[in-house]
Amino acid sequence: MSAKVQVSGLTKSFGGTTVLDGIDLELPPGSATAIVGASGCGKTTLLRLIAGFETPDSGSVSISGQQMSGPAAFVPAHRRAVGYVAQDGALFPHLTVGQNIAYGLPATRRRAAIRRRVADLLETVALEPSYASRRPHQLSGGQQQRVALARALARRPKLMLLDEPFSSLDAGLRASTRKAVAHLLATAGVTTLVVTHDQEEAMSIADQVAVMRHGRFTQLGSPREVYRYPVDRFTAEFLGECVFLPCTVSGGVASCALGRVPVDSAVADGAGTLMLRPEQLIATEVADSERQTGVGTVAATEFLGHDVLLTIDLGGDITPITVRQHSIEPPPADAKVHIDVIGGGVVFR
């Protein structure tokens, strides 16, 4: 049975410095939530408060309707049915990998059943069963982190807290491991909260994403919502590359150097800054510059394999913009290009 988590008005300070400032967060049963933010913004502190490793200054944490931290109660960490994977793994150095993973499993389970469970968990985190006999110091940092993840999964927790769980893995293994772990947790119905600085990782595995800054959430919503419709410039830039253009809004349309771009009809008329994502733009080489609106010059290209980044000078006082598109025959440097815009934009003031 998965857990519903309710965090209300959570605050925490260390040495007079406020780390969390009135955090509200709800994790629906069986959902996956990712928190992203810069180092020191309070992400790990929030996880530790939910896990029961720290006590809040005010506010409450409830799991499955039971208050775990708050004015009326404090339930110790070991009684919260919560799995926790720290950034450094925190394995027991005197135990083997198999013993680390099996730590906390019921002593009544037969040895053969424990060995099978350990082997299954090792396979889940992309390690061979032979690793069960090794010691933590014989593993790489990435391997240690995967063992820590397997250990947390062993007890089949109702709530899983992951603090940068894939940060020490190489790019290829990181993608495959996070996909396997996300599938495992979703299949098991485990409510999951993951902290990461990797925006792509957060949006790929989460049902909802929270962006944190200075101990507060700037925005909480679905991955698509926070990426495509950020509430402010900080959130927009933190989640990915942006194109910013001065514009004038009239009747739900922003007029800018790229032409007329639809925006939310609720946006008030007047001057503003239009935000687009680089992948919303398509640059097509043109023979001349007869079409004045949306025409620029390719100032630089950056080949990234599957796609290419084009830096395009629109002329005048406008800062050059970035276009991301497929790397198959992109416009060359110094080429004149026309830029088409896919979808709408967001206006900041």
Q: Give the biggest beta sheet.
A: 6 strands, mixed
Q: What portion of residues belong to β-strands?
A: 35-45%
Q: What series of H and E elements makes up the topology?
A: EEEHEEEEHHHEHEHEEHHEEEEEEEEEE
Terminal residue distance: 46 Å
The dominant shape is globular
Q: Residue-averaged pLDDT, rounded? A: 91
The CATH superfamily of the largest domain appears as: P-loop containing nucleotide triphosphate hydrolases
Helix and strand content put the structural class at alpha+beta
Work out the helicity level. 10-25%
Q: Which fold name is given in CATH as the topology of the largest domain?
A: Rossmann fold
Number of domains: 2
CATH first level of the largest domain: Alpha Beta
Structural notes for this entry:
With 349 residues, this protein is α+β, with helices and mostly antiparallel strands. The chain folds into 2 domains: 5-234, 3-Layer(aba) Sandwich (Rossmann fold), CATH 3.40.50; 244-348, Nucleic acid-binding proteins (OB fold (Dihydrolipoamide Acetyltransferase, E2P)). Helices cover 23% and strands 36% of the residues. It is built from 8 helices and 21 strands. The strands form 4 sheets. Strands 7-8-9-3-10-11 form a 6-stranded mixed sheet, sandwiched between helices. A 5-stranded antiparallel sheet has the order 2-1-4-5-6, with helices on one face. The radius of gyration is 24 Å and the shape is globular. The model has no long low-confidence stretch (mean pLDDT 91). Residues 5-239 form the ABC transporter domain. This is ABC-type quaternary amine transporter. Keywords: ATP-binding, Cell inner membrane, Cell membrane, Hydrolase, Ion transport, Iron, Iron transport, Membrane, Nucleotide-binding, Translocase, Transport.
